[in-house]
Amino acid sequence: MGTILIVDDTLFMRTLLKNILFSGGHTIAGEATNGEEAVAKYKELKPDLVTMDVVMPKVNGIEALKSIKQLDPAARVIMCTAVGQEQMVKLAIKTGAKGYIVKPFQAPKVLEEVKNVLAT
Amino acid sequence: MKEVPLKIEYDGKWVVIKAGVGEDRISFPAPVDTEVLFKSVFNLEEKKNVLVITVKGNPDTIIRIASIEKVLIILKRLILTNCNAYRLMAYFMSPAIRGGVLAKNAQWEKGSIVVVKTGIWFVSAEKQICVPLTDVAAIELTKRDVQGKQTDVVRIDHVESGEVVSSLILCPLSTLQVLTNFLKDATKGINMTGNELDAVAQQVAMLVYSGMDSHAIENMLTIPHKQLDDIYDRIIKLGIAEVITIRREVQLTTKGVRYISDATKNQTNQN
What we know:
The complex is a heterodimer.
Chain A: E1 3-7, H1 11-23, E2 27-32, H2 35-45, E3 49-53, H3 61-71, E4 77-82, H4 88-95, E5 99-103, H5 107-118
Parallel strand pairs in A: 1-2, 1-3, 3-4, 4-5
Chain B: E1 2-10, E2 13-21, E3 25-28, E4 34-37, E5 41-47, E6 50-55, E7 61-66, H1 69-82, E8 86-98, E9 101-102, E10 109-115, E11 119-124, E12 128-132, E13 136-146, E14 149-160, E15 163-170, H2 173-186, H3 199-210, H4 214-221, H5 225-237, H6 254-270
Antiparallel strand pairs in B: 1-2, 1-7, 2-3, 3-4, 5-6, 6-7, 8-9, 8-10, 8-15, 10-11, 11-12, 13-14, 14-15
């Protein structure tokens, strides 16, 4: 079980992820609605894991991932994006993402991925 | 012909025989006494280690056989290579995404795609995966990053043990277009225009997809039970959801209230 920062610009997706992660026994460290806020919250909360949407206003998920990895090279970040944008996978993995989930997702698989990444 | 041991359903019973398997045919000795040319097979299904072979004829013949995995793998390869089906050489990745999570170590495999009457087979030297057409949720011609290049692929989403699994097929664009049209035609009836559901109903469908129960959905969307029930009715009517459990909400009767009061009193006295 870990503390998790959820980063997504839509309330719906944040609420869904919160529910899924909470049902898996994880603690929600906090939420952010864009990349800039994500980096600030990461510094403040030092979560065990971040779920990061890719397409967001202001600073996108890839840029936020870069900043977080600069702050903490051991940061565990799972990228989260819509079907059809999986081409971002390589870029995200190259940037240091530990995992990748594609919307729409199913709760058991998300929890499995979170568990795997937390174990790294 | 090589002899292989297998069980075959004959007269409603499973009979153990040694079938003769050749490059283009399989022959079943007595009591079945039948020879099947692979090119006359137009459907192949796999149900819990049982191969169901449908042979063209008047009427068509359905043969059910079971055997050890090694034998079934050989039979499937021979049938799928020679049967009467839509077949193309392609690269495929199956599964590529499972439940929204990219499959670990997923890679492109060289093989063939065989579309039979009731399913799509992904066949390579290592794998023989069957996706029944009734389990196909979506077919889309899309683009993927393949070795750094944006490349046309066909994505097939299918439901497998309650999980949504995506598989990808890669071959020349003209073939992909033919395949997409063929598969869309074979699975027509699953397409929706997207206008059937309003925003809240779409969110409900998304939450059901993600595995949320009614209670969680009501809380997340802050909608009353009656509204959720109406949305369920609509999505069930559209054929995009089905009822799996009817859960009851109850309240205590006077007798129940008395029972709880007494039980609490007894507990208090004991303490």
